[in-house]
Amino acid sequence: MKDKSMKNQKGVVLFFALIVLILMTLIGVALAVNSTQSLRMAGAGAERIEANAIANGALDSVINKYKGAAFANMMVSQPDSLLGGKQRLVPMPWDGTVKDVSCQRSSKANGANLISCRRLEVESVRAFGRENLGQLEVVAGIEQEVLTGS
């Protein structure tokens, strides 16, 4: 009688062992997929940070390239292409005229209205990601001090 019950038990243990093995395999596959997605997301974040650094560097480069009189006398939008991105300098206001305006950040005495400012908007656009589907844009405003009427 005891031998008969032992034969029945061996099949049940094998069945439960296979079920546990299948469950462990499913958990392992789920963890592998999760870690792959985490790596992709971390890579995308790193690409965005890199694109931001490049766009800021290109913004600094284009400001350095056009500094001084080129800024002060710019009348039309000026496109440029540095560090694999696109930059654009836009005089403000956008109506194509050069206008002197009061300086927003100047602490110098200006009682005789001798110093005024001209404003520009500088933007830098950089594509990033798989097949360059992402786009990052950095915009800065610039004031150039000038003598009034020059």
From TrEMBL:
Occurrences of domain Type 4 fimbrial biogenesis protein PilX N-terminal (ranges): 10-58
InterPro entries registered for this protein in UniProt: PilX_N_dom
Pfam families: PilX_N
Name of the protein: Pilus assembly protein PilX
Natural source organism: Shewanella glacialipiscicola
